[in-house]
Amino acid sequence: MPKKKKTSPRRPSSRSRPARPQPWTAAQVRDVLTNPIYGYGIVLEPADRVPIEIQEFEAQLADEQNKRGFGFTLQGLDERFQSFFTSLVESGSFTRGKEAQPIIDKETWLQAQQVAIGRLARGEPT
Questions:
Q1: How does pLDDT run across 20-31, given as a tens digit for each residue?
Q2: Which terminal CB of the chain, N or C, has fewer other CB atoms within 10 Å?
Q3: Which helix (H) or strand (E) holds 95?
Q4: What is the DSSP secondary structure assignment for residue 73, as one 8-state letter?
């Protein structure tokens, strides 16, 4: 009687398994929180430069907050940010694309900006 060859159980190939989602990095979360498409539905191009511009604007607002001695209200931030988005387009630095559906409400997006500005005003990293 011939010996049966031992076979190990077949494992599915790595190609057949869905890739595990990778956890978000702090930088990725920060980019989401600094792009108006998520809270306003405003699409600005080039998209890769938007978070950088927003973060620079937050730093300016933090300096202003320190000079004033008090923080911004959500309404005040809304006005500032909408004016800022308009100025980016009017300066020719960005173009405005077709509006998108925001994935978070504007107030939540503005609260994230409020927190970031407060941290910058205190000299903390964002």
A1: 888 988 888 887
A2: N
A3: strand 95-96
A4: -
| Whether 81 contacts 110, CB under 8 Å | yes
Give pLDDT tens digits for 70-94: 999 999 999 999 999 999 999 999 9
Specify whether the CB–CB gap between 8 and 25 falls below 8 A: no
CA 43 from chain center: how many Å? 13
- Chain-centroid distance of CA 97 in Å reads 18
pTM for this model (two decimals): 0.78
In the structure encoding, which two tokens stand for residue 1, read together? 């009687």
Give the largest CA-CA distance in the chain. 93
What whole-number distance in Å separates Cα of residue 17 and Cα of residue 69?
55
Please name which of 116, 17, 101 lies closest in space to residue 58, comparing C-alpha atoms: 116
How many of the other CB atoms lie within 10 Å of CB of 33?
A: 22
Position 67 scores a pLDDT of 95
